[in-house]
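Table S4 entry, Guanine nucleotide-binding protein subunit beta-like protein.
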Amino acid sequence: RICSPRNSSAPWTAFIFIRRSHPPAVSGRRHEAQMPPRDVALTSFQEVQRFGRVYTGGKVSVSHDAELIVCMCGEKLSVIEAKSGALLFSVDSAADELTSFALHPCSHELVAATRSRQLQRCVLNVDGRSAETVHVWKAHRMSVLDLTYEQTGTLVASASADTTVMVFDVIKGFCSHVLRGHTAPVHRVLFGRAEGRRLQLFSAAADHAVRIWDLKSKGCVG
């Protein structure tokens, strides 16, 4: 559960709750009429962990091994230890504030986008509580609104307010696809597999269209 503060500009607070299956104790004859039937289970929740003020809205992701939680916090990313709820460190950019990110599906690594339309690939050092930027490159003509990894971690797709979708080979460091067809800002992208295991990319935009892209032919197929 993520709770919003009264001041919308302040960081949000995340909680973890456990459910209690036993009903609260009720005693006295005057309460007997208010008690539910015995076969109706009452539930209540007890707070067991609080993550603190580390989130200001936007994307939240869990690492492949469920050890880390990464979320937006103002102009930075918060990297949280899932087991303890402790803030390990923050990821930022020397150039500008961060607008979106995607976690690697197989390792402690991420790609983040900045307000100045740069993409940066970072390796998360949990033991050293730091992030090392290993590659930075320019992407779209307008803000990047979403990022997603392909399941092997080789490709990253980006959605932009300039109505295009781009695909990058993050290992070799080049753009492999520029997909055009939307007529409004693209808000979401997601990789998938078609029949025959052919790699596809799904995109959703403010033009109320969801498009399916075949990466081999570089065309829209749905």
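The chain has a mean pLDDT of 84.
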